[in-house]
Design goal:
about 290 residues; about 30% helix; Rossmann fold; globular
Length: about 290
């Protein structure tokens, strides 16, 4: 797919200050199993921005995250993350993959799950006992990020016994443990009910603003985060568009991306509903409901 970059003033052209860029893809293409997922993508995200990646299932939203982490190579073009190659920047990135529910019988405490984000790659969950200076500093950092996500009241409980929203807050704290400059979040709201979606969206926006962290969030439904976003990257069959939500999530732009008539409607409470094919992520649907 060929990508078109848009901004808030001129669809197709974007002026970017190179000193402010946290993510840059230039002529980027990815292929999996001999199939091109997307191609000729040009995207630039500034430091400290809160950006959503939108598009229907199978369009390559999670693939984009994996490219930025250095987990998937580009078939063509270049990628730069925090002034480095994607793999070289990995330790400066907090990553939250698509969520899977914890078994209710799991006895690992929430605080231990957060600690794994700090040093779990070296020695797993720390054993009780004497603490070194490094251990005390790690404990202080874990307490700090748990407080940051407002999870202090339940972090000592087994993770499997917490609600979905509580678990997600602790997983975000885990991603923040190493003081990353960037958060890559793959559908962090997808399995939550609407009140928890709103609460977690507000939390992520506050972290982006107060901590100066660049946030790239893959979303199926844009509405819970609509009021917090700086820009969106919208992937479709006809390319990609980047710009403010008001400029990208329009009937004209989405019809061009999907090469089919699509209508974007605004409800009285400010939510967006996209009418047309394929399935569009601006309208909330419960993809986990059973028939």
């Amino acid at each position: 797919m060929s990508a078109t970059v848009t901004d808030s003033t001129d669809i197709g052209h974007e002026v970017v200050d190179p000193d402010r860029v946290a993510i840059r893809l230039t002529g980027a293409s990815v292929s999996l199993g001999g199939r091109t997922i997307w191609s000729a993508v040009d995207v630039a995200v500034d430091h400290g921005e809160f950006v959503a990646v939108l598009g229907p299932n199978g369009v390559g939203k999670s693939t984009l995250i994996k490219v930025l982490l250095g987990l998937l190579p580009l078939a063509a073009g270049t990628a730069e993350v925090l002034g480095d190659s994607p793999g070289g920047a990995r330790r400066q990135i907090g990553y939250l993959p698509q969520r899977r529910s914890f078994d209710r019988s799991l006895r690992v405490r929430g605080i231990d799950v957060v600690r794994l984000g700090l040093d779990g790659d070296r020695w797993g969950i720390p054993l009780p006992g004497r603490r070194s200076g490094r251990g005390r500093a790690a404990t202080a950092r874990v307490d700090e990020v748990i407080d940051l996500v407002e999870a202090t009241g339940y972090a000592g409980r087994p993770i499997g016994q917490l609600s979905g929203g509580e678990q997600q807050r602790l997983l975000i704290a885990q991603a923040l443990a190493r003081r990353p400059r960037m958060l890559l979040l793959d559908e962090p709201l997808d399995s939550l009910d609407l009140p928890n979606q709103a609460a977690v969206a507000a939390l992520i926006a506050r972290i982006c603003r107060d901590e100066g962290v660049t946030v790239l969030l893959v979303a199926h439904d844009v509405n819970p985060i609509l009021g917090y976003l700086d820009r969106v990257i919208y992937l479709g069959r006809g390319g990609a568009a980047i710009g403010t939500p008001g400029d990208v999530i329009t009937s004209e732009t989405l019809s061009r991306l999907y090469d089919t008539p699509i209508e974007v409607l605004a409800t009285s409470d400010g939510r967006l509903v996209v009418v047309g094919q394929p399935e569009a992520p601006a309208h909330h649907t419960d993809r986990h409901a059973h028939s």
